[in-house]
Design a protein that fits this description.
Oligomer: single chain
Number of strands: 14
Shape: globular
Distance between the termini: 47 Å
Number of domains: 2
Largest sheet: 7 strands, parallel
CATH class of the largest domain: Alpha Beta
Order of helices and strands: EHEEHEHEHEEHEEEHEEHEHHHHHE
CATH topology of the largest domain: Rossmann fold
CATH superfamily of the largest domain: NAD(P)-binding Rossmann-like Domain
Length: about 325
């Protein structure tokens, strides 16, 4: 099986590579070469997919069984991928996002693949527009298209989000016994999937005829509240998290850009079902528990000297001071 990954060095791609190689696939990655290269048994091509004519020319004489597009974020990039691979691959798997569903809470709580797609973020809108391009290409039989929508994915090589931001100082505060901010009442719903588990769905969807023309949520089935989330990350650190509950809008107004994750995503419920994916791709089973994965992720952050020191985060400390001065008491997660 010959597989091309457009991207190939990011967080989810690392998990995909692991499982494709376990399947015995011949893997090629295409990227700009800005990060560390792939394993020695993986072929690496350099280029910029944003240069559409050169990108398409580079693959005009190539043929792959499956192409996995990990770095497509808008319809123009999707259209370029269609031009590059129509008639040159059996299947194209597009990495989309659960952000395409928007923020409405379904009656059943868990969002499935039939839920109306009404994204509110620019990221979600771009991915949805790209989905539509790939869906048309599938209908026109240019290749078999498959859409996979990850949610929050984490693991070594990346940061571990908190509810407020992508690269938080909160974990340093937890380690030091300091209170951390939590938006709302801490009962919002959330899921976190390890990169290796998420990558398994991409790797085993490849050339699986059941996945042709289908879309899937790529999530660990376990649903956490934010109180659960903070408690279990703290446990991975051997500590206890102490939470200060505050309105999301109050946090966001301090710095809408910094707290953009909270503004667009995490102040809303984020709970999805992967029942469809598990039915069509039986190899997709999430085996890495959140506490275990959080521990190894934070250990990796330290090893890369990327640990964020909370003592330099004056804005966050000033917000905590204002909340405590208002008489709000910290609650153990």
């Amino acid at each position: 099986m010959r597989v091309l990954i457009i991207g190939g060095t990011g967080l989810i791609s690392t998990g995909i590579l692991k499982h494709l190689l376990a399947r015995g696939a011949e893997v090629t990655v295409f990227n700009r070469g800005k990060r560390a290269g792939p394993p020695p048994n993986v072929k690496s091509l350099r280029g910029d997919r944003g240069n559409f004519s050169e990108f398409e020319r580079q693959f005009q004489n190539e043929r792959f069984d499956a192409v996995i597009d990990m770095v497509c974020f808008n319809p123009e990039q999707a259209e370029s991928s269609v031009r590059a691979f129509a008639g040159r691959c059996e299947q194209l798997i597009f990495c989309s996002t659960v952000c395409t569903y928007g923020v409405k809470v379904p009656a059943s709580i868990l969002v499935n693949e039939d839920f109306p797609q009404e994204p509110i973020s620019g990221y979600g809108k771009g991915k949805l527009a790209a989905e539509q391009v790939f869906r048309r290409a599938n209908e026109e039989r240019k290749f078999h298209g498959t859409i996979i929508r990850p949610s929050c994915t984490y693991g070594p090589g990346g940061s571990l989000i908190d509810q407020l931001e992508f690269n938080p100082s909160a974990w340093d505060r937890v380690e030091k016994g300091l209170p951390v901010l939590c938006a709302g009442d801490g009962l919002g719903l959330w899921q976190a999937t390890h990169r290796d588990d998420c990558g398994k769905l991409f790797a085993y969807a490849a050339l699986n005829p059941k996945t042709y023309g289908q879309d899937y949520n790529a999530v660990r089935e376990e649903v956490l509240t934010w109180r659960d989330y903070y408690r279990r990350v703290a446990s991975a650190l051997g500590k206890t998290a102490h939470l200060l509950f505050v309105p999301a809008a109050w946090v966001i107004k301090h710095d809408p850009e910094r707290f953009g994750l909270l503004k667009e995503i995490t102040q809303y419920h984020g709970a999805y079902t992967s029942k469809k994916a598990r039915g069509d791709v039986p190899e997709f089973r999430c085996e890495i528990g959140f506490e275990q994965g959080a521990g190894e992720t934070l250990a990796d952050v330290r090893s890369r000297n990327a640990w964020r020191d909370s003592s330099t985060d004056a804005l966050y400390q000033s917000m905590v001071d204002r909340v405590l001065a208002a008489g709000v008491e910290a609650v153990e997660a």
